[in-house]
Structures are given as structure tokens and as C-alpha cells.
Amino acid sequence: MFLPLFLAMLWGGSQALDSFKLQVQEFVMVQEGLCMVVPCSIFYPSRGWSPTTPAYGFWFRDQTPKPSLPVATNKPDQDVDTSTQGRFQLLGDPSESCSLLIREAHLEDSAVYFFRFERGDYVKYNFMEYKFYLEVTALTQKPEIYVPEILQPGHQVTLFCAFNWIFDECPVPTLSWIGNTVSPHEASSRTSYFSELTFTPRPQDHNTELTCRVDFSREGVSTENTVRLSVAYAPKDLVISISYTDEPALEPRGDSPHLEVQKGQSLRLLCTADSLPLATLSWTLQDRVLSWSHPLGSTALELALPRVKAEDAGRYTCRAENRLGFLSRSLDLSVQYAPENLKVMVSQANRTALENLESGASLRVLEGQSLRLLCVAHSNPPAQLSWARLGRTVSPSQPSDPGVLELPQIQTEQEGEFTCRAQNPLGSQNISLSLFVVSPPQLLGPSCSQEDEGLRCSCSSRARPAPSLRWRLGERLLEGELSNASFEVASSSAGPWANSSLSLREGLSSGLRLSCEALNGHGAQSGSVLLLPDEKGLASGAIASGISLGIGVTTLLFLCFILILNRKPNQAVLPSLLLQMVTPWKPERIRRSSIPSPTTVQDPSHPYKPQKQRTTKRSSITLSSTSQALDHGRPKDPRARTQSTLKSSSTEGLLGHRTRMQARERGRAIGMRTECGLSLSLFNAPRMGHPIPDPGAA
Q: Which long-range contacts (CB under 8 A, 24 or more apart) does 477-482 make?
């Protein structure tokens, strides 16, 4: 009987508890000094009160064991906690809302709070099961300042300051600007959630501070935020720093514009500059760009030079540039190294360049030619140049330019090794070349004499290198050592001299032409002998030089000879003597020298040996010589030749026996009277040609 009643009472009590409800956040956080609203709503039974019955709400700090005074209430004449008086306040209609306004939160306000509601006689309830925890933290919230990243000098700009204020029920804070850039009228305070500041930046405003302050109460609770202004400026304070292989640390170079390094060292160049916005940096060598920074700019740019080379020398320039201007600084890099790439430039006396010679080269020069040797070396510092011949120093031709060596009229004794030496404090280098003096052939002869066994001719020539001799007999070419029944050729050479002899035993015919030819790689020369028979087939043994008698004497003798023939046609004529110097030019197959031919000089030191006199018979012989040396590859004009003919005629009746004997024995002049009534003095001519030099005397 009591059990149903007890269950009914529990059910009714449960319904009564379920009719009291409260909705509030369990955890609330607020920063010290700030204001906030804690939203709250209640539900309670509609018993024991009427619409006109007042409703009272109370917020208590949950304390054990005994609750204290409420921190906020809407009940008149109700005492409240003095620590929260005027700061904690109930908001809205108490019959529906239990929201709590907290102003200027203090750290001591941190606690657990619960709500009590009263209306009429029945509704009086402590919502102990619905509590919230309030935590008050230190003030860290700051106003937000909106400012462009970079301010342009002279251009007006507007800055904004805002504070995150989300509760309309809270009093509006006071915002103000503080800074050197703010004028007095701009520094006035404004009561609002945001504030703006308009001003014109100046270059001196760069890196200055600007503050926005938020004041919440008369107790001095405030918060502020400070920014540093960035006013754009052109690049400045450009510095170049360097480091070497063994010195990894960078060292500012300062204002020194010159840097010396040795070849092979590693070098790092670092360029830094201050600018806003960041400048674009670049490294250039002369006018060639080596590297540059990111298009967005950079504060530093490094240039690495591993193993510096000679061609790395020059002016290095670092340039920093942005839209407001540019700045640059240069560094002259000098690379020091020992002499290298040593070479000799060869030219003629007229400074016409021939070729460049490397070390060990051979230089062949025509005797009598003038040369100019110029020694050139690459080095830093510049090398001292000197010339030596066969190990002995040669005085420079130009003291102001010791690398120049002039050799005028080169002679054979100047042959040898010439060495140019280049030296500086870092090392030295030598270059040597061998000088060889060459010359075209100088022909001596041919000289011919009639002997019992036939005709014997000799020919000698001097040249460097020694020439080769050969005989041309008619259309036949004879050279070397040859011997048969008709002729015999014997040759020898010593030093620059070459000798050859030709003995003809038979084959002497009318109009036979005999010539001796000498040639080497630098020229050729030839001499010819023309044999003319007399009317009786006999040969005379006198050979003389008729050039000295002249063209006039030759003409006179010829006229007299015609008169004699016309008056005494049946009288026998003695053999005639005809001497003819002819210089016909024939092309020779020879190797041409690239060096012009010098003037032919007779070697005065050569000792000539007199030939052994042989018993000779008189013959009629014509000698001609051809001299051909390579003069820039062109032969002498064959028309420019000298011809001289001496022809003398006499009969056995015109010359007395005694006169002939005296001419033979004494070699004196013969007084001769011709049919034309003229007197003529003839001289006994010496044998044509030069004696063959002794090979040992070369």
C-alpha cells in the first residue's frame, strides 16, 4: 500500500527536477581586462507564480562550505560581492535569461559559478548541476595594424588599426596612434573598434616605429601593437668581400680597388648591398655578365673562381639595382704568373713579319741578309727578357726593348744557337732556336786547257749547303763519278766547296757546247764553253778575255779582216780566237728558298793553289758563263747580258818568225801591222778560269 505511494512521490519529484533546466557553457576563458558575455538561458516550472510575479536571478561563486554573496543579481537591495560590484551584471529578461556580462576581467575572477533563480513561492532553485568555469588569463590580445609592406617615399598612404571586439554589450574601447610619423591632429584618440591613419612617408621614416593602443577602462588597462615602417630606398652600403683557398672566411675588401692573386688559386667574391625593396645583384667582367641574383632580389651574391687563370684578370663589377636606383662597385683583379707561351717572331730589317718560331726551331738565313728577332712572353709581372748566343749574353739591339735582337748582314760565323730567356719573380722560361747561314752557289770556272790526250776542263763552286756540280755536254748531262773511252768525270767536296773536272778524249765536233752547272736549294749558276773549229781543222791554245778591248776595237778588227780577205782571197787564214761571254737563262728544277737572296760576296779567305802548267796547243774556244740565283723566284733578264767578241786574224806572211818566238817566250806585246795600215798591240792572254782551290783550305 505504501509502495505505490512512494513510487508516485519519486515520480513527481523527478518530474519537478526535470522541469528546472539551464543552458550555459561549461568552460569560459577571457583575457585580463577584457569584457565578455557568458550566454545563459533557464527553464523552470509554471507553478506558484503569475506573469506579474517578479523573477530574480543570482550568480554565485561556488565556494565550500558556504556560499558567499552573489557576484551579480537583479534583485533590488541585494548586497553583492564587492570584488565584482559594477563589473558583473545580469543581462536580459531575468525570467528567461541568465546571461552574465563580465567587464574588465581580473585574474581573481577565475572560479566556478552557478546560478540561482527565484519566482513566487514555489520556484526557488539553485542550478548546482549546471555550472561554468571562468578562467581569466593574462592579456595577450593586441590590435591588428594593416600597413603596406613597403611604403613609397612621397606617396600618401592610409594605415588601419582594428581590435577584435565581438560583444556589442561591452563598452567600446579607445584606440590611438603613437609614433614620430604621426602629427598632433592625427594622434587624437577615437572610440571605435578600428582606427585609420593617413600620412605621407619620408625617407627618414624608414625603420621608425608606429604604435596603435587600445584602452579598455579608466583603470589604465590597455593593449597595444607596434610595427616598424619600411620606406623604400635605393641600394646603399655595397660591400665586396673575398676569401682564398686556404682562407674560407670572407673579409670585407673596403675601398681598395685592386686585388692580386696567383694563377691556380681559388677565389670567392661576395657582394652584399642594403636596399628596399631588395635589389637585383649581378657580377660582370668588363662588359660580360657572369652571374645575377633571383629576380625578386637578394642581399648577397657570390662569385666563385676556382683555379684562377690568366684570362680571369680584369675589372669585376658588382651592381645592385631596384626601382629606386642602383649602386655599383668595381674590383681590378690581377693574376700573377710565371712567363709562359714564349715565342720568337722573325722579321726582315724592314719589319716584314715572316713567321713565329717555337722552341727548338731551326732558322735558315741567306748570307748577307738582315734579320730582326723579337722575343715575346706572357707573364705578370712583366718578365725581363735577354738574348744569349752559345751561352754568352748578347747585348740588346734596343736597350729600351731587350726582347729585340737585330742581326744585320748575317755572316757564316754568326751561326749557332740563340736563346731568349724570360724571367720574373715567379719563374722563368727559355726558348732556343738554331740559326743556319745558307748561300746560293758561286761558280769559279769552268777553265779548260788543251792537252795531248784531249781537252780538260775544271769547275769549282762555293755555297751553303755545299752545291752539287754537273756537266752538260751538248744535250748530255754528266754528274757524279763517270768514266769511259770518251770522257772522264771526277768530283770532290769539302765544307762549302765542291770541285769537278771533265776530261774529253774524243767527240770534239763543230759547235760543241760544254757547260758546268752548280746548284743547291737556294740558287744555281752555270758557265759554258763553246768550241769553234778553224778552216784547217787545227786548234789554237790561247784563251783570253776580250771584254776589256771593247766594242770599238772589235769592230775595227772586223773591218780590217774583211779588207784582207777581199785583197788576198787565196791566202790561208790562221785559226781565229773568239771569246764570247753569254748569259742565257735556262729554267732549273730546284727547290726555292723562302728567304730572299743576299748579295753574293767572294770569300777572301780561300787560298787558291796554282795549277800545274801543262804543255798546250792553241785552239779556238768560246767561253760563256750563266749565273742564276733565286732572287725572289725571278731570273735575271736574259736581254741584259754582256757580249763581247774579239776576233783577230793574221797570216803567216804578216808575222815574222822572230816576233812569234818573242811573243811566246816573253809574253810581251807584239807589234803587228795589218794590210789596212793600222798598228795593233795584242797581249798574250792568260788561261781562262780560276785555279781549282785546295779542298783542305775550305
A: 478/502
